[in-house]
Design goal:
The complex is a heterodimer of chains A (43) and B (676).
Chain A (H helix, E strand, L loop, with lengths): L1 H19 L7 H11 L5
Chain B lengths: L1 H22 L5 E2 L1 H26 L9 H4 L11 H12 L3 H9 L4 H28 L6 H8 L2 H30 L3 H24 L4 H24 L3 H4 L4 H17 L6 H26 L2 E2 L19 H9 L7 H6 L12 H25 L3 H8 L2 H4 L3 H10 L6 H10 L12 H15 L6 H38 L9 H24 L5 H29 L7 H23 L7 H13 L8 H41 L13
Antiparallel strand pairs in B: 1-2
Helix pairs in contact in B: 1-2, 2-6, 2-16, 4-16, 5-14, 5-16, 6-14, 6-16, 6-24, 6-25, 7-8, 7-24, 8-12, 8-22, 8-23, 8-24, 8-27, 9-10, 9-13, 9-22, 12-22, 12-23, 13-21, 13-22, 14-24, 14-25, 16-21, 19-20, 21-22, 22-23, 24-25, 24-27, 25-27, 26-27
Classes of the chains: A mainly alpha (43), B mainly alpha (676).
Chain lengths: 43, 676
């Protein structure tokens, strides 16, 4: 079970990094919310 | 003890698989042998060679503070979990190069490509990525250009920067050509790929304006719409009126791509580039994983021979002998200069512990190499006759299936025109002949593998266009992001001449720099489109030479860092691949400029066409185009000479530093950051 959990964590981390390498950065939601808030919108 | 026995078993199994691959002749060979050989080679390379480099040559030490901790700003510099950095680094280095290069090199047979991808990555490519990453890590995340300037000198630094910009221009031009060759006369492909642009724009507006921050929602909608566009493409293709709207010739597609590159560079990042990039990420990683699973599940037989007659340089895909052209064609799957820009870009700023650099720098490159092996297998599982029908220029095989089959069968690769036409219909196209550039043959190979795993013959057309969309997204992501990066580099340069031109917020400066970079790569793209030999024959080797010369620059820097360190003897680890790369690329560059064979030498090609012009053998309507092709061939010769000169400057400047360091009064201090 521990090995499975470790594998899932590694795969999750890899995918998070892979998608996070896009122009949105590591945390797209935060990036977009900051962008919206700069324009006076709530998020 | 058990571990030792285990590693001996891995080595023996890998050696046996390599032995089978190398010695089998004339019999079908399961692709499983290739997968086993690759995985065992990577395991041995990672476990032993990278461990040796990490412990002995580089002396990785977690007591050293990394830039992510030293300059932690919570944004660019941020200590990050090593799996996340691995995914980030892999996404940044995995471009279309490892997908296209091995497919083109398959004209020599599978053996040269497989051996170079495996040996090159373990001893060269992964070493380059790893050592540059560690070099940057110990210099607070400095870039390749900055390190060359500081460690080698200002002359070498300026040459490296100029080289990077010139290489970017060639890279985007040739990748654009690959997309054009995959999509001309294919309404299904043009519709599906074209629709990803409004879908991305819609996602951008949705995530920023309509439902700010709702990334998951937008991603699900985006992926669903892309899949709908894929299915809709079939309907468009069948519709007599609509198919005309999306049926583009090569020139129109080139103009559309140039327009797209300009718009993507000028528009705000959040509106087009970011959502498109984000959407592509899911499709890219999903398809690569699917290909790996498909190959493991189906384990198709390889039909391509180990070696073909074209190792003598007479190949129809591109001209030139197996040495040096196989190696500069494969390029990124074994070694890539571009990776040095990533290893000295965002990655070193995220690494938590110094020892993570081995897993990220060396490991991610092994994974990229595995992508190259899968691409090569996708070409190798096709019937060789079909492979050559897709990848040979029309100047070599004509435009009719029957004539092409006759020519290709004459080369010793039997091709039944009826079977080719059946395959063309199965993948939903009107022609597969002369779709050069590697992408369509990869798509045919992937469709073959995927349809055998899921959907059968009836799903082949859908899988083919899915693969084309995947490749186009891969390339367009590089094209739009590369154009934007090139724009910033040009603004940096122009800002030195007149400060307002360097302001990235200025619309005028933005438009000017975008126009300059797009004009640069657009020129090479258009040159490829009108090239009588199909464009890939000239431009892919030019790209390969440029990319490998950038790798030579990176390895010259890495060797300098070793020479200046307390462990100069370990410089062999980077000096050996450097010597190989210089031999290969300088030979290829010299041949591309001066070979007397007009199919290889740019100057000979220009002279041959000029002689035809002088003798009146060129038809009146082709006169203008022939003058342009002559000019382009001479321009390509000049660009190749420029690359060779720039790298010669960097390497000679580096050699001067090595000599001075090794024979001077004492070791010159390397500019590593002092430890806390």
């Amino acid at each position: 079970m521990t090995a499975l959990r470790r594998f899932a964590a590694a795969l999750g981390g890899f995918l998070r990094g892979f998608v996070g390498a896009t122009s949105f950065g590591a945390n797209p939601r935060e990036e977009l919310c900051q962008h919206a808030q700069r324009r006076g919108r709530c998020c | 003890m058990a571990k030792t026995v285990g590693w001996i078993a891995v080595a023996l199994v890998g050696a046996a698989a390599l032995g089978v691959i190398a010695t089998t002749r004339g019999e079908p060979l399961s692709s499983a042998w290739f997968l086993v050989a690759a995985l065992c080679t990577y395991a041995i390379g990672y476990r032993f060679y990278s461990a040796f480099l990490a412990a002995k040559a580089l002396g990785l030490d977690d007591a050293r503070v990394t830039p992510a901790h030293r300059s932690n700003d919570g944004k660019d510099f941020l200590p990050t979990n090593r799996w996340v950095v691995f995914g980030h680094h892999f996404a940044a280095i995995a471009g279309p190069g490892p997908l296209v290069g091995p497919i083109l090199a398959a004209q020599f047979g599978y053996l040269p490509g497989v051996l170079y991808i495996l040996i090159g990555v373990v001893l060269g490519g992964a070493v380059q990525d790893f050592t540059i990453l560690v070099g940057s890590l110990r210099r607070n995340g400095k870039s390749l250009g900055q390190m060359v300037r500081e460690e080698i000198g200002p002359v070498g630094g300026a040459a490296a920067l100029a080289g990077v910009l010139a290489i970017m221009v060639i890279l985007i031009g040739v990748l654009g050509l690959v997309v054009v060759n995959a999509m001309f006369g294919s309404p299904w492909s043009a519709f599906t790929v074209g629709m990803t642009i409004p879908i991305a724009l819609g996602m951008g507006v949705y995530m920023v304006r309509i439902r700010p921050g709702q990334v998951l929602e937008a991603s699900l909608i985006g992926v669903a719409l892309v899949l709908a566009a894929l299915v809709g493409g079939h309907w468009v293709n069948e519709h007599p009126e609509l198919r005309r709207w999306f049926d583009f010739d090569k020139r129109s597609l080139a103009v559309l791509l140039i327009g797209y590159g300009f718009v993507a560079s000028v528009l705000p990042v959040w509106l087009l580039l970011a959502p498109r990039d984000y959407l592509s990420a899911f499709i890219k990683i999903g398809t690569v994983a699917l290909l790996a699973l498909g190959l493991l599940w189906v384990r198709p037989d390889v039909h391509l021979p180990a070696l073909t007659r074209f190792i003598d340089g007479s190949g129809p895909v591109f001209a030139g002998k197996v040495f040096p052209f196989c190696f500069i064609t494969i390029a990124c799957g074994a070694m890539s200069g571009f990776h040095a820009l990533i290893s000295s870009g965002t990655t070193p700023k995220l690494i938590d512990k110094e020892t993570d650099a081995r897993f990220i720098g060396y490991g991610a490159m092994l994974m990229e190499s595995f992508v190259a092996i899968m691409a090569l297998l996708s070409a190798a599982v096709m019937e060789p006759g079909v492979y050559f029908a897709i990848n040979s220029a029309s100047a070599a095989i004509g435009t009719e299936a029957a004539h092409a089959a006759e020519v290709i069968s004459g080369w010793g690769f039997p091709l039944d025109p009826a079977a080719l036409e059946k395959l063309t219909r199965e993948v939903g196209e009107t022609t597969l002949l002369s779709r050069t550039g590697g992408a369509p043959s990869l798509a045919v190979g992937m469709a073959e593998i995927f349809s055998r795993a899921l959907g059968g013959e009836t799903a082949k057309a859908l899988w083919y266009h899915f693969a084309i969309m995947f490749e186009a997204l891969f390339i367009l992501t590089t094209l739009d992001a590369g154009t934007r990066v090139g724009r910033f580099m040009i603004q940096d340069l122009l800002g030195n001449l007149w400060a307002p031109l360097g302001r990235t917020s200025s619309l005028g400066a933005n438009l000017l720099a975008s126009a300059l970079i797009v004009a640069g790569w657009g020129y090479f793209l258009y040159q490829g489109v009108i090239d009588p030999l199909g464009g890939i024959n000239s431009l892919w080797p030019l790209f390969g030479i440029a990319n490998q010369l950038l790798a030579a620059t990176a390895l010259a820097l890495a060797t300098t860092l070793f020479v200046k360190s307390a462990r100069p003897a370990f410089a062999f680890a980077t000096a050996t691949p450097l010597a190989w790369l210089l031999t290969v690329t300088m030979t290829a560059g010299w041949q591309k400029i001066f070979s007397a064979d007009p199919r290889i030498g740019f100057l000979a090609q220009a002279d041959a066409l000029a002689a035809k012009l002088a003798s009146g053998a060129i038809a009146a309507e082709k006169l203008r185009e022939t003058h342009t092709v002559i000019f382009n061939a001479r321009l390509d010769a000049a660009v190749t000479a420029l690359f060779m000169t720039l790298v010669a400057i960097v390497v000679l400047d580096a050699a001067r530093v090595w000599w001075r360091t090794l024979h001077g009064p004492g070791p010159a201090p390397a500019a590593e950051v002092a430890e806390a």
